[in-house]
Amino acid sequence: FTKANTLKRSLYIRFTPKELRSKCGVRMGPCSHHIAPSPPYALVPQAAIEVTDHQIQVYIIALFALAEEEIEYMDCILAPMCYTLFKAIEDRGEELCRDLENGSLSLAIEVDDKIRSEVNRNLRVESSRASRVRRELQKGSEGLALRLWPHLKIVTMTTTGAFEAQSRMLKSSFIKGVFCKAFGHVASEAPIGVSPECHQDSLEKVQSYTFAHSNAFFEFIPEDEIHSQSPNTFFLDQLQLGQSYEILITNRNGFYRYRLGDVIKVVGFLHENPIYEFQYRAGQLLSLKTEKTSEHAFYAALKAAEMEWKGLSIEDYTSTESTNVELIPGLTKNYYLLFVEIRSRRSENESCILRQDEQHLVDSKLREISEVYDTYRANGSIQCMEVIQVKPGTFSKIKAIAIKETNNQQYKTARANRKPDLLTLLLE
Asked: Under a CB-based contact definition with an 8 Å cutoff, are residues 425 and 413 in contact?
């Protein structure tokens, strides 16, 4: 934070989940809302944060963000929350600019009178600012953050695992040129690790962490025993350099013992505390035979293919095995299906259709990365991957369905999807 220590403004992106309670009356909800609430000096008034309609929340946050030019720090918690903000600015830019010019929230935005009054009280007429925002939006998404907020120094958000693809898309478009940092590896059950390299941009180098060992009791299952009925477990001081493990924790509140599903690799030591890199989620595997293709390997192949797609980047993706869908009745071929949403790096209005050779690149890259997958492809047991390019906005639609009852912004796109209703939506 050495570059972000002036008296300029900070934007905290927070969304209030719908309150849920268990049968015995215990409150339930996403951990991020409780451990990192919006501070009282935040740019967005608290009344706006308490709106429970997700689309209205996003709109009001975007309105206050655009009204303030001197933002230097943006705390997003998770990459999807950052993406949601910028998509709202991109898609509803003209509405937002009109509200800036008027210095009030549009009557088309349906909110309680008390909330509207609080929002309007904190807004002011910003005609010149609205004109500048319009000009910058017309230039496209690349580098938009720095054009809207020239003093922006740092964006913090979780960038690993399921969030990596979206983080990299943000870095190549909206927040290009802005220092990006993930300060920790956190689960709802407990903080797991902290970054020992605060000066390093999280998207320019593989992010590493050291264990926050005072927050929970950690045990580790060796990678080759993850699927065992009774796996061996090791303590923190027994971890070996170069080896991978699934994290098992016992939390401090109730002494509940969890298998997190997070698989990490030990890459060094800070004194006696292991330094590790996140690899993949144990449950996010594709397997038609015995190949067990991990999320880590699959995304590495997808990322390698993306580098050869000229002017195109991945918006979001998921995958499944052909055994989970019936594209052609009676077809018994085995293959992976990749559902991917693509955007242009050059212009939001430019057509983004993957050619067949570009689609086949993903399969080729996966064969290079996974020796077992390549063996099955070579002997014909598994056929070439089927790439299905979905319509723009498909994954946003899936997210809206998934969080409709909770407004839980910790939602993650499943990288291995086997839910019939969602697969049906993807195949439409």
From this structure: no
